[in-house]
Structures are given as structure tokens and as C-alpha cells.
From TrEMBL:
Residues 9-168 form the P/Homo B domain. Gene3D superfamilies: Galactose-binding domain-like. Keywords: Hydrolase, Protease. Transmembrane segments: none annotated. One of its GO terms (molecular function) is serine-type endopeptidase activity. This is P/Homo B domain-containing protein. It comes from Shewanella algae. The keyword Endoplasmic reticulum does not apply. GO terms for biological process: proteolysis.
Amino acid sequence: MAKDYKADLGEYLLTDWIASEKDLDKAIPDASLAGVSDSLEVAEDLVVEAVQIELSADHLRLPDLAVELVSPAGTRSVLMTPFNGLVYQGVMDPNDPDDLVKGYDKTPMLSNAFYGENTKGVWTIKLIDVNSGEYQFLKYDKGYISIPNESNGMLKGWSIRFHGHKAKAAS
């Protein structure tokens, strides 16, 4: 049976996007658990219901990337797991397997892992390339398709916004 909540969370708020520097151009090391990170300072004091990001990153093999967001409280949310089911998104033209999508372009992602936390503080995004080996997948009408991965990716930029409500003042 579902729990019956009586507390009023207050007015729902959706913040404006807070963007990183334009053209971060931070290298995502190939097959390195060190990955690359970037942080944004958030001054607004809200209680989180959901956190949304937009990610721009160049990478020839998106299934190699893990995308993680870390809150000021230290909570970690994996927004995109490596080796996910998005295998064919790396090829733009289905008739030309060499026409590769170069990565994420303001791709939206959302997490509810930070529910109830405060927005104020430093939020950090981390991208990790987990594979340098062979990678191929089977496309029903083309056979096996291999996507090369000989170079570093690039974190180009990211933005964050919050779904939530005002923090209640201490009484």
C-alpha cells in the first residue's frame, strides 16, 4: 500500500540552466578510470526533487563512456552506464557505418538520486572511458560493425538545472 503524505512541499520550482565555461575542451583519457571532471558552484538554496543536465562531449564510441554526477553532499548518480543498450547511436548514417556520431550534443539526462538534498554547493560531473579494446555490434541488415577508439574523447561543456522547491527556514 502506498504511503499517504500530508506534508506540503511548497511551490514547484524549475531553475534556469547553469552552464560550464564554453568550450571546456577537457580530454577524456582513453581507457582510464581517472576520467575527467568538471565542477559548477550553485548558489541557489533549494530542496532537490530532480537534477537535470545537458552534456556535450566528443567521443567516437559512446558505449565506452560512463557519466557520473556528484552532489555537494557526496551522493553519486550514474547518469549513463558504459556498455549500455545504446549500441547503434554511434553511427549517424545507417547506410554508411563510417559516418560516426561524434558524441553527445546538449544531450539531456535526469536523476532523482539527489531527492531531498540541497542544491547549494559544488556539483561535479565525471566522464570515464572504460574500454580501449575491440568493440563491435551486430546490425541485422549490415552484419558486424566495428567502431574504432584510438584517441581520447573531449568534454566540451555541460549545464545543470534543478527541479525542486524552496528550503524551509529553520524555526
